[in-house]
């Protein structure tokens, strides 16, 4: 095994173990009781973390205000790790939004066979051209959202399972 793969595996094991330790914290348990948050929304298992990553990334790539509120709207319908989903929404921030949405617009225009207009990052330009860019922007956003959401879901599952497997192998050799 090369050194880079070993470092990645060690980091995955560390993250998984840190999440497990945090979920067992007495301070966290008392906070959950006081705030009456259902504990399954803070569960640190593979399914809940991967679902949180999936939902957070699905919402993060859609150009809309109040993405974190959109995550909270899914709470009655799906079980997922809410803090992880909220953190995934932070991928879109004032520094990453312009290149993300620019790429989504051009990708959507390309897939729809439309000619992409030159973009100016001004409020006036957007208000004058919203009718022309809306469909390609959101079409590209949906594609990016689905691809990166499911890629994140797969990555969490893959690395979590790999981490568990490596941990079991390590303990077998220690016996």
Summarize it.
This protein is mainly alpha-helical.
Verbal overview:
Helix 1 crosses helix 7 and helix 6 (about 95-110) crosses helix 7 (about 125-175). Helices cover about 75% and strands about 0% of the residues. With about 180 residues, the protein is an all-alpha fold. The longest helix is centred in the last third of the chain and has 52 residues, at about 125-175. It has helices at about 5-25, 25-35, 45-60, 65-75, 80-90, 95-110, 125-175. The model has no long low-confidence stretch (mean pLDDT about 80). The protein has 7 helices and no strands. The protein has one domain (about 5-175).
| Dominant shape | elongated
Q: Which value, in Å, is the CA radius of gyration?
A: 20 Å
In percent terms, what proportion of residues is strand?
under 5%
Which range best describes the helical content: under 10%, 10-25%, 25-40%, 40-55%, 55-70% or over 70%? over 70%
pLDDT averaged residue by residue:
82
**Number of helices, counting only DSSP H or I runs of 4 residues or more:** 7
Q: Give the CA-CA distance, first to last residue.
A: 22 Å
Category from helices, strands and their pairing: mainly alpha
> Uncertain segments of ≥5 residues (pLDDT<50)?
none
How many strands appear in the DSSP assignment?
Answer: 0
Largest sheet: none
Q: How many distinct domains?
A: 1
Order of helices and strands: HHHHHHH
């Amino acid at each position: 095994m090369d050194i880079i793969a070993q470092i990645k595996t060690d980091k995955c094991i560390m993250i998984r173990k840190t999440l497990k330790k945090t979920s067992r914290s007495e301070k966290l348990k008392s906070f959950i009781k006081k705030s009456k948050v259902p504990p399954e929304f803070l569960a640190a298992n593979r399914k809940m973390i991967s679902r949180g990553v999936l939902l957070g990334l699905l919402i993060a790539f859609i150009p809309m205000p109040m993405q974190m509120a959109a995550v909270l709207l899914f709470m009655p319908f799906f079980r997922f790790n809410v803090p992880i989903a909220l953190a995934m929404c932070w991928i879109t921030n004032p520094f990453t939004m312009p290149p993300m949405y620019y790429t989504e617009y051009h990708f959507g225009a390309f897939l729809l066979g439309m000619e992409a207009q030159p973009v100016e990052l001004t409020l006036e330009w957007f208000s004058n051209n919203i009718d022309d860019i809306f469909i390609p922007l959101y079409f590209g956003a949906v594609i990016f959202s689905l691809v990166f959401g499911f890629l994140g879901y797969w990555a969490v599952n893959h690395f979590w399972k790999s981490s568990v497997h490596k941990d079991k192998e390590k303990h077998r050799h220690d016996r």
